[in-house]
Amino acid sequence: METAAGVEACLPIRSDMDLVWVRQHVRQAAALLGFGLVDQTKLVTAASELARNTLVHGGGGRMEAAHVVRGRVNGLRLVFADDGPGIPDLDRALTDGYTSGDGLGMGLGGARRLVHEFAIDSAPGAGTTVTVTSWSVRPPLPREEA
Amino acid sequence: MPEYGAAGQGGTAAREVGGFLLRRREQIAQRWADETLFRTVFTVSREEAVEAGRTVVEALAQVAGADLSADPEAPGFLVVREQLSQIGSARTRTGLTPSQVSHDVDALRPPTVDLLVADLPDAAPEAVREATNVLTVLMGTLRLVVMETALSEGQALIDRQRLQLLEMTTPVIQLWDGIVAVPLIGTLDSARSQIVMETLLESVVEQRARFAILDITGVPTVDSLVAQHLMKTVAAARLMGAECVVSGIRPAIAQTIVHLGLDLGTVVTRATLADALGYALRKLGTDIVSEASHGAGER
């Protein structure tokens, strides 16, 4: 795929500066894959929340971006992984307003609402991996002629 | 480094190379002036390039004489460090990669080795090889020093630019008597939003502002942290008797905020800066009316 170059990446998340990099990469990749402006903004915002979680709660980690295809629709899959303390109670972490830090507690739950597919894998002491996928629902596909 | 400092023979060879460099500095500098590195950095005159080359050769002679050929921290390099960093950064500024610059520096070695071999016509092959070795190590160290200074220069530049970015974030603009506005641009991380809050609150006091408009047109991403910073700023301004209006919320941002589940209900928001100004003006009991509608009867 000719867009693979600008989409596939593994970015480190170690500082505030890296968050800027993550956001810019996700925005560019989403634009390359034909995401509309609203979907781009949603995905970038979700990435920003998840990357900050990786940094603040996971003590740093990485984000992997991959191009996925379903039928003729392009998708962008982002995997945020850290080797931090993990999340003891996933249900509670996904509850709006619950925070273990001093944030608003909207990050994880909010990110889940901003993407199409959301999966989280975490155990105490085993780190946290969040995988999100969004599809460019309105790609410039040619209309099927009858 | 140890293996050279310890070997007595190496020490002799090093002193020999040092002597050679000093004797032939003029010739070496003349040769270097024609190499890419000096030709592209010292563009004003050839004389300037020769002069620069001579200082570098003299420094190398001192380093070799002190038998510190492999030590980038050798005192001899201190004298030319600034010059080398000028050379290195002048090259990287033109868009060359570090390895290309390194290659340019390495190009200085062959002509120098040629001169060295020509300088020792009667020496035993053993001694020639020894001296060539020392010179090669010395030139490798020079390469290292150039790269090091160029890179640290780059790091210093990045640090300066980061500070500049922090500074240029927050002009507070007085839009009207009692109304101030801050156009926010770029990423609102914690450090920057702290500065925004401080400058805004200060200007609220200075200008005796009743309304403060935070315009986020230039903020590409509004996530929960940015929203939290905005709400804190609004709350702080309210404590000081000023009402905050957040403007410049684009359609995509508005939808994202809703999906994210952020409640900005306590904050007055407007789509554009003009709307926010109109809102504040009306609240102050002022309004801007167009002349056409005002003087319609006079036509």
Automatic annotation (TrEMBL), chain A:
Q: Which InterPro entries match?
A: HATPase_C_sf, HATPase_dom
Query: Which Pfam families does the entry mention?
Result: HATPase_c
Q: Could you tell me the superkingdom of the organism this chain comes from? A: Bacteria
Q: Which residues form the signal peptide?
A: none
Q: Which residues form a coiled coil?
A: none
Which residue ranges does the record assign to the Histidine kinase/HSP90-like ATPase domain? Answer: 38-138
Q: What is this protein called?
A: Anti-sigma regulatory factor
